[in-house]
């Protein structure tokens, strides 16, 4: 079968890989569509993300959906023939952190598309059946893929114990930032302040409910935030870009006693905070580790029409055009927000 593999820095190719074998507790999923995530782009640019370095060729991708073709146990027979969203994190289910419900903190986990675990950009994968969620007919394939980042946004909001009527800033209006925006808008958080370097993303943020947007390539974000809040700052700050500038701005634009949620992954592996401001304001700094049992809730919100995920789906490429897909995403071409690869 065919898979989209990283073969060199900034180079992906369709290569032949072995068919998956079915193990106890697993299902064979025929993958239909996979999103290109920021972590995929880290690997594409650098061949590594944090300490995880890919051994080439390496199959990319973790935001995925597909159709279940085979199951190892009759317990999961109800999944056969169903479209499913794939939870990419595979916890051990045995350690103390899994047993207390913090599956996202499992130190023994594997994760699709994160070395050494091959990703979902292949025609079929074997995956634990309990990590597959049936997708209702009302959701498109693209929306099913986008449930994964939406689940992360829901976990971030849960972790922050966000209050209705409070104010929030979102630093970075890519897919994750826009998912956070849509969740906060549904909760009645107001006002909502969004930043990005790309005008097309800020335009979409405004359409999705942002009350103020700032192009960080043209304007001083901290000065604008202080002007917008009359010097007070925001009750919640969601850092969704994972770059030094947005991390540094986080404490500067937060209100005293605010909660700052770090979602973005810095390619250098550090978090760069303005320490004196964070200490002086008594900020709570919360690190968001993927999602925590929120995929099904994300699906419910999307199926009810509360979260217009389809607005984020801007580009779809066939598997044969995988290089063009990654080039488009990494270079922010053509107004891209979320690019997908069809695996059929």
Query: SSE order in H/E notation?
Result: EEEHEEEEEEHEEEHEHEHEHEHEHEHEHE
What summary fits the major beta sheet?
A: 7 strands, mixed
**Rg over C-alpha atoms, rounded to the nearest angstrom:** 20 Å
Any idea of the CATH class of the largest domain?
Alpha Beta
* Helix-strand category: alpha/beta
Total count of domains: 2
Helix content: 25-40%
The separation of the N and C termini measures: 11 Å
Helix segment tally: 10
Estimate the strand proportion: 25-35%
Overall 3D form: globular
Verbal overview:
The chain is 28% helix and 28% strand. It is α/β, with parallel strands linked by helices and 344 residues long. It has 2 domains: 2-134 and 308-342, Medium-chain alcohol dehydrogenases, catalytic domain (Quinone Oxidoreductase, Chain A, domain 1, Alpha-Beta Complex), CATH 3.90.180; 151-287, NAD(P)-binding Rossmann-like Domain (Rossmann fold, 3-Layer(aba) Sandwich), CATH 3.40.50.720. Strands 3, 7, 8, 11, 12, 19 and 20 form a 7-stranded mixed sheet that branches. Helix 3 crosses helix 4 and helix 3 crosses helix 9. The N and C termini lie close together (11 Å).
